[in-house]
Design brief:
Layout: H1 2-29, H2 33-38, H3 44-53, H4 60-71, E1 74-78, H5 79-84, E2 89-93, E3 96-101, H6 115-134, H7 136-150, H8 152-159, H9 164-168
Antiparallel strand pairs: 1-3, 2-3
Helix pairs in contact: 1-4
Length: 171
């Protein structure tokens, strides 16, 4: 049992790493996000400033390390980064701090708002939608199944013609 749990945990971590890499390369790997942030009108000085702020002036491997540091709950940040990004969690150390934090999902390129806050605003509506999609089918199907079972041939004749023959044959 312990071997099974360990194997499933390793598989789960591999899937998590794959998803994080996929998301990073979808948003950072292709094209230049600074153009999206800057919009159509912008000069090269503005673009350079945005590229520095988003770490786009660094090599891709370094950008990926910074991204992992932001989205991971275990992190190493400077005091300035913690204040600038308004990170929430437990941080230990001097100028460079080791921390256990709520993952920082950065800022939206378009709205300039924190992605975590945008997701939390959409969460109630998402939960209501998920609940209404999952809950009604059993609530309708369970009370309706005994009468339909008694009239199986009538039901299958009307709503499932392909199932009619096995029901009539008693299969």
């Amino acid at each position: 049992m312990l071997k099974y749990i360990a194997r499933r945990t390793v598989y789960g971590l591999l899937v998590l790493i794959g998803v994080v890499m996929l998301v990073f390369f979808l948003f950072q790997g292709f094209g230049d996000p600074s153009r999206l942030v800057m919009g159509q009108s912008g000069d090269s000085a503005t673009q350079a400033s945005i590229r520095k702020e988003l770490y786009l002036d660094q090599p891709k491997w370094k950008q990926f390390i910074f991204y992992l540091n932001d989205v991971s709950p275990i992190c190493i940040h400077t005091k300035e980064d913690i204040e600038k990004k308004t990170l929430k969690g437990l941080f230990i150390g001097g100028h460079t701090k080791f921390g256990l934090k709520i993952p920082y999902l950065r800022r939206s390129y378009q709205s300039k708002r924190e992605v975590g806050k945008i997701l939390m605003e959409a969460l109630p509506a998402t939960l209501i939608l998920a609940f209404t999609a999952v809950k009604p089918p059993p609530m309708i199907a369970l009370p309706a199944s005994p009468p339909l079972a008694r009239t199986a041939t009538a039901y299958t004749a009307l709503f499932a013609p392909g199932v009619r023959l096995p029901v009539e044959m008693g299969l």
